[in-house]
Amino acid sequence: MFRTAFFIVSICCCSFYWCHGCLEEERTLLLQIKDSISYPGGSSLDEYWVGKNCCQWYRVDCNPSSSRVISIKLGSIREERLGLWYPNTSLFAAFKELEKLYLWGNHIGGWVMPQAFSEMQSLRELHLSSNNLSVSIDSLRCICELTTLRVLNLDMNRLNDHTIPKCLGNLSLLEELSLSGNELKGNLPGLCELRNIRELNLDFNNLDGRAVPPCLSNLSKLETLSLSGNDLGSYSSALTGICELTALRGLYLSENRLDDRGIPKCMGNLSLLEELYLLGNELKSPFSSLTGFCELRNLQNLNVANNSYVGSIPQCFGNMNSLRELHISYNQFTGANPSSIFQNLTNLMIISASDNQFNDSISFSTFANLSKLVHIDLSDNVRLEVEMEHPHWVPTFQLQSLFLSNCILNRRGGSGIPTFISTQQSLETLDLSHSFLKGTIPSWLLNNLTVSSLILGGNSLKGTFPQSTRRNNSMLNEFDVSDNFIYGELPSNIDTLFPNLIVFNMSKNKLQGTIPASISKLQTLRMLDLAENNLFGEMPHGLTRNNTSLEYLRLSNNKLQGNILSKFSNMTELVVLLLDSNGFTGTIASNILSSPSLKILDLSKNHLSGFIPSWLPLLMNLAILHLDWNFFNGPIPSEFCQMQNLHILDLSNNKISGSIPSCLPNISSWMKEISIDVDVLSEQVYLRVLYSLNSSYYVDVFHTRVTTILTTKGMTLTYEGLPLSLMTIIDFSMNQLTGNIPSQMGHLKALHSLNLSNNILSGPIPESFQNLESIESLDLSHNKIVGTIPPQMVQLYKLSAFNVSSNNLSGAIPNEKQFLTFNESSYTANPHLCGPPLQRSCSCNNSSQPRDNKGEEEEEDDSTILDSPLFFYLWVAIAYILGFWGFIALFANKNWRWKFFSTVDRCFDCSYLNLHMFGLYLKNFCCN
């Protein structure tokens, strides 16, 4: 009977509520607010705010008993293209029971009818972050009328000292105030009158030590104080008053340039402190007994990462029995992690001590009894020995993540993969890269159903590809076993072994056989790196079809053959394609245009031929293009001048002819410095949440830094990440280019390296080269360039590699500034150049002037010497030898034929030059 009555009453109440809905007058007000926030365009609320019952509308909450609106949450609704929004405050004031108002991220520049704020006496929370309230100096004064307000958020509004109203102290009931991300510098008026304040956030302003008012110590109820991202280190006594805030539980002082003097000696007074963040400062040793730091027995989260701490970890850390998180990474701690520190820290969940200088040894048995541990990071302590097998121990914890890269693992235990890992059934991320591991990869490691990221690269692991006994249920997203000694073939059923792979890196191993076709069935695969193995055959056609998710494909330094891509290729997400140093043949097919996001294309060191496609500029995002060491012929397409993002263009070692396009200065990335993002897997972030405590998340992100090999300054170097994105290079060397060097090339002010050597270029060095203000390497050697070296080029102060040898230059060599650093090899085989560093003096007028009629007669004499019988018989002998072995090479092997013709070209050039120089020597010797 009772249940029946309760059910009837519930139905009646619910029916009343749903039938009654919200008040019609408030529904009308909401529609007016929607029209205002979307004026003069459409609104994203149109599809949500429909029907008569506004209490069911998106981001609207009502009081169940009165049906009045009590909460309006319209964060980030107005689009930036609509300009600033000036809300009519009277519309919000008409909601008599409104308690919470969220208007963040709506480009608010001020208010219409601001006096209506005085009528909003039910309002408890007001969130106005990420607006433009600095536009009007009076935009915040009206907020002082909200005397019942408990929470006020004004983050990121470009507010300065003049826009904060003095009447702020009128908000006597305020408990939370956030002003982070503004432009505050001086004292904050009215701040010290907020006696009920519990949370104060002033992060990332321009506050120096003098801007922290002494009266801050009067805020006796303050529990959380956040001052990170300011400049408190500029005033050593800035934090003295903080010691009076005995109710503090959270203190955040990161990134303030604080040194040891900035830590108050009375820190121990904060006996209730639970969280202390000091990361990113300049601290070295504030843990002395004078500071009272070691008295913080209730501390749960200590973060002092990214400072300059030296010496051993303070023993007093072991007295903080409540500690749950310890972050000391990126410092200069030495010695070992003393076991005595961790014995009593039974509440510890996170240990982060990477990137220090620990140089002793530590046994993992130290952590055996810390049953709550979920995260350990000791990586990048290159001299730290971590022993996991001796003495024998049994873990009581279940880790979620373990980072031990760049340490020395299990030296006493044979350097094998730690066996205790087999007991970790919650492990998600395991990084043991570059840790001197040996032996094979055990199958139990791949059978762990929770591991999503397994990184074992840079070790000495050997054996065939590790086999898993499970099928289809592997959670592996990232599998990196690069730079080891794994041999044999990749498994033909790799799609069933690891169906969820996103990152697969087996580069720098000894893999053989073909790339299995099943790898194309990995639907989530975004990065594939199989470079530097012994793989052969063709690239699986399915790998590049059907709109794959691949962003990064690297198959360099293998023995792959056939066409680069099949005619059905469709890789819409591709950003990086590296297929260099293989045996691919044919031409570059236009199906590569199906990858509009392509930024890096490296097809060098293959057997590609034909003309360089003029449609390549249709890849508008292309920044790095390597086509060197192939058999391309024909001219450089003038369409290349449309590639505005091109940073590196390498067409060297081909058979390209014609002249250099004069329109190259149209490429803006060579005219002004423009950085490019060449990292992949960063647009969509994969988070592995390891542990959460008071909104503090620890995440790991798949992140791949692109590396490439570049030749500049006469050296072959590997570039990675940011240096690569700022490097600008043109390399047209070892071709058959003719004509003058376009003077327009002197306008490439952002160019770092220019190599035009080993061509048939003529004419003078353009005087405009004096404008190559960023040039570091300039190679014009082995051409037919005439005239003098422009003396204005001494202004190129960044120039560190310069070569104009084997040309027909004349006159005096510039002898000041950067040119004083270049040796004789930069100028050899230019008979009419003179002055240091050459031994040839410029005292004779003929030696310092361009060739006149007499010079022409000397040239005729030179050619007469070369036409003598002696040189004729020498040429016959050379031709016979090359002809005989050439005949053998042509019938033997295609690669031999390619190498033979390259050798013939080099021998011819070298022989001609040497005979020419020898003839000059004989002539001078005989004449003298």
Automatic annotation (TrEMBL):
It holds the Pfam family LRRNT_2. The chain crosses the membrane at residues 870-892. One of its GO terms (molecular function) is kinase activity. Keywords: Cell membrane, Glycoprotein, Kinase, Leucine-rich repeat, Membrane, Receptor, Repeat, Signal, Transferase, Transmembrane, Transmembrane helix. Residues 216-433 form the Disease resistance R13L4/SHOC-2-like LRR domain. InterPro entries: Leu-rich_rpt, Leu-rich_rpt_typical-subtyp, LRR_dom_sf, LRR_N_plant-typ, LRR_R13L4/SHOC2-like, RLP_Defense_Trigger. GO terms for cellular component: plasma membrane. Residues 1-21 form the signal peptide. Residues 24-63 form the Leucine-rich repeat-containing N-terminal plant-type domain. It is a single-pass type I membrane protein. SUPFAM superfamilies: L domain-like, RNI-like. It is found in: Cell membrane. Belongs to the RLP family. PANTHER family: LRR RECEPTOR-LIKE SERINE_THREONINE-PROTEIN KINASE ERL1, RECEPTOR-LIKE PROTEIN 14. This is Putative leucine-rich repeat receptor-like protein kinase isoform X2. It comes from Cinnamomum micranthum f. kanehirae.
